[in-house]
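All the exercises in this workshop are built on plain-text protein records. Sequence and backbone structure share a record, each on its own labelled line. The question running through the whole workshop is how a given chain folds. The record below serves as our worked example for the rest of this section.
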Amino acid sequence: MNTTRQFLSVVHVALLAIGLALVAGPVQAEDGKTLYRAQCKSCHDVGSPNGEYTPMDLIQDQWQRFFDRKYERTHKGVVDPTSGKPVTETISPEDLELIKEFAIEGAADSEHPMTCG
């Protein structure tokens, strides 16, 4: 009887851990989406002179190349209206990584292309 109880306890803990891991994944993607809306959409919305960009406007390789090679150069002179500092200084590397992941995961050639709607 004790062996069965121990086995069921282990299974219960394992299922709980798997459930928590599954919940953690979408939260990070939502964080990227929220950050994209807050940090990027104000300058890249419909009719913007800077161009309208949503994740599905580019393919994954283009987003990868943008964040790896072009972001710093193209955004170092862009001023964050809230802080008055360049956005390259106000968006943390961790937040930028979440934005990058959101853009790549929602790219035109991804399994789930998306806007930041």
Observations:
- Residues 2-105 form a domain with the Cytochrome Bc1 Complex; Chain D, domain 2 fold (CATH 1.10.760).
- The two ends are 54 Å apart (CA to CA).
- Confidence is low (pLDDT under 50) at residues 10-29.
- The chain has one domain: 2-105.
